[in-house]
Amino acid sequence: MTKIAVEVKMVSKYYGKFEAVKNVSFEVFEGEVFSLLGPNGAGKTTLMSMIAGILKPSSGEIYVKGLNIAEHSIEVKSLIGYCPQEPIVYDLLTGEENLLYYAGLYGLPRSEARRRARSLLELVELKDWSKKLVKKYSGGMKKRLSLAITLIHNPEVLLLDEPTTGLDPGIRRSIWSLIEKLKSEGKTVILATHYMDEADILSDRVAIMHEGRIVALNSPSNLKKIVGPYSVIELKIKRAPSNSIEVLKQYSETGQVLHRNDTYKVYTRDPDSVLPKVIGEVINCGGKVVEAHVSEPTLEDVFLKLTGRRLEE
Amino acid sequence: MRFSAIYAIFMKGAKEVLREPEVIFWIIVFPMMYLCISTIWVKPPSAITLNLGVVYADETINNYRLNATTIVEILNETVMDDTKIFNIRVYGSEVEGIEAVRAGKIDLCIIFPNRFSMNLTWGFPAKLKVYIGTGNMQRAQFAEGFIRGILSRFSEKLALTRAEIPVKYLEKYPINFTAPVNVTVLVEAIKLWILGLAQPLNVTYTKVTPKIGRWSWEEGMGWMTLAMIGVMFLFAGMLSAAVAIAEERERGTLRRLLAAPISPWDVLLGYTLAILFEQALSIAATVLFGTIALHAKIIWNPIEKPVHILIPVIFLLMGLFSIGLGLIISMFCRTTKAAVAICQAISWPLMFITGITIPKFMLPSPLRSLADVFPISLAIESVRRVVVYGEGWSAIVPVIPYLIVVSFTVYFIGAIAYSRIVAKVML
């Protein structure tokens, strides 16, 4: 039977009258990658901070490895590796010194701290930079070092808050492979992200958050089924007519059209016959279709279906 | 309490201090720069040389041995701190002399009128005129002060010399009185009366060097070196505490610290130790520079003088006081910039109005009262009395209870302020 690593029970968080997290409950199993997917302001960071023991829930309980965080704060914090959104590194220390500093906070013996620092610097491919001051590091390097810091005390549960935000695609992929490696080592990872591809690729299960609530929780493939048995026609239109969304809605069987910049998504069961029609309609209205392809639904489509909004709104 | 965490925070803080050029400037370079600049006013003022014009309108000058040139020679030979006071030029007429004063070529001009030498020799009132240029008020004051002083001393000496002549006659040719008087007593009274005519006031002037105000170079630099340590407590101590917390808060690392299995008090203690280290470093650098490079008199020898053991205690108390102030300030600052601005706005005036860098006696009365209660001023002053002026227990013991109470109270309030910051982050 799979053991529960983290259990969130009816947790809410209020800031005055504003409810940032509303009565959220879920369980995260040992060794799984669990994503909290949602746009900015959905309550992901607040929820992560509460699991990390930084914020106190207004109501509800959180258990990590069976320990109530409110009662066993110090023990729970030792089990968790928390990597917040912003880099947690100090510019005037070297990469190695940063790791040793955090090792000290977790009470690691000096020799063990050095050994772990060396192996983690190798893991995040910063071995050659270990003796250089962090102020000379790029943003991506700082993020990788932050991840290494999160692992310094060999935690059982990792909380990664937007670990790839603001990074270029190459570095994002290297961080993804690092997370996959951690999963293969049996670590439990809770990942907060607003990148649907990140959640899709890395997660065993995804909790979709919207306005402080979890609106759906399942594996990515099961979540996509929410969209229905539809394929997605994705059109890139130049000089799009002002009524394009209205025009395209006629062909979208979900009644929704996802629009971002000059890209439009139409949902249909029969893409082969619908695709030529929508292209013809756009051209008739004065638009120019520069790209068109058919794909399966993504988590973004799920989010749209559930909330009526785009993930990045 | 996790000692490894406290040690880690201390080590991080210490490394950051040593690697941050701005911090190094404030705790090491700034005191040195200030000490170098302070040498300007610690050095006693050097004697001033005045340009003196002389006009001999006296036609009797060659007829008498005691004449106008006697006075000019005295003026020419007058020195102060091995520097001649007067640089003398001779002018042909009174008009020329006055013109030279007006043109600023000379600071003052003495006119010896006709028959000056004769009057001087015969014991008649010998008039002379002195014109003093007022273009430079400071030089004018010096000129007037010097010439008045020298001429009045000359006049007094001359009067005494003249008075001694009849006194000697009285001694040589005693008067025979028929009246029943004590002749000896009477003659003594007449002699004293004659001398009194020449010297109505017999004033004795004795120079007393004050402890503060006019000092030796070594004491002056010792005074200033301690002043810089006081300044360091204001700037480095307060600023470091305020910035440390504001910085952790601003870049989000305070949240990360709170996610570690340590208490907020471990963080505070670690930072306190790091800032105390920074202050110790600054004190060591300032004292070494002051004593070695500028020959400041600072004697610290706890083996010979046990009272010196209290000096580090006082510095520790001031360290805690300044850290406490910084923590209180950090409560009102969300950013590092704000912390720096507020600390500087507080530190700069305090540096000048609390008797730390400007001697207390030079301050206006209300500020003197402030200096009497401001802990850093009191601490620095008592340390000065011990290590610069060599005083004993009485200089330092009376202020210790006050400093303990104030330092711990301010640090305690600072700790409460810090706990409120942490509570805000955790809300």
Instruction: Assign the CATH architecture of the largest domain in chain A.
Output: 3-Layer(aba) Sandwich
| Contiguous runs where pLDDT drops below 50 for at least 5 residues of chain B | none
> Helical segment tally of chain B?
16
Low-pLDDT parts of chain A are none
By CATH, the superfamily of the largest domain in chain A comes out as P-loop containing nucleotide triphosphate hydrolases
Lateral strand order in the biggest sheet of chain A? 6-7-8-3-9-10
Taking Cα atoms only, what radius of gyration of chain A do you get, to the nearest Å?
22 Å
Map the helices and strands.
The complex is a heterodimer of chains A (313) and B (427).
Chain A: E1 4-15, E2 18-29, E3 33-37, H1 44-52, E4 59-64, E5 67-68, H2 73-79, E6 80-83, H3 95-105, H4 110-123, H5 139-151, E7 157-161, H6 169-184, E8 188-193, H7 196-202, E9 205-210, E10 213-218, H8 220-224, E11 231-238, H9 244-249, E12 257-260, E13 263-268, H10 271-284, E14 288-295, H11 299-307
Parallel strand pairs in A: 3-8, 3-9, 6-7, 7-8
Antiparallel strand pairs in A: 1-2, 1-4, 4-5, 9-10, 11-13, 11-14, 12-13
Helix pairs in contact in A: 3-4, 4-5
Chain B: H1 3-19, H2 21-42, E1 50-56, H3 68-77, E2 79-80, E3 83-84, E4 86-91, H4 94-102, E5 108-112, H5 116-122, E6 129-132, H6 137-172, H7 183-198, H8 217-251, H9 253-258, H10 264-293, H11 310-330, H12 336-353, H13 365-373, H14 375-387, H15 393-396, H16 400-426
Parallel strand pairs in B: 1-4, 1-5
Antiparallel strand pairs in B: 2-3, 5-6
Using brief descriptors, characterize the structure shown.
heterodimer; A: 313 residues; alpha/beta; Rossmann fold; Alpha-Beta Plaits; 2 domains; four-stranded antiparallel sheet; 11 helices; 35% helix; globular; B: 427 residues; D-Maltodextrin-Binding Protein, domain 2; four-stranded mixed sheet; two-stranded antiparallel sheet; 6 strands; elongated
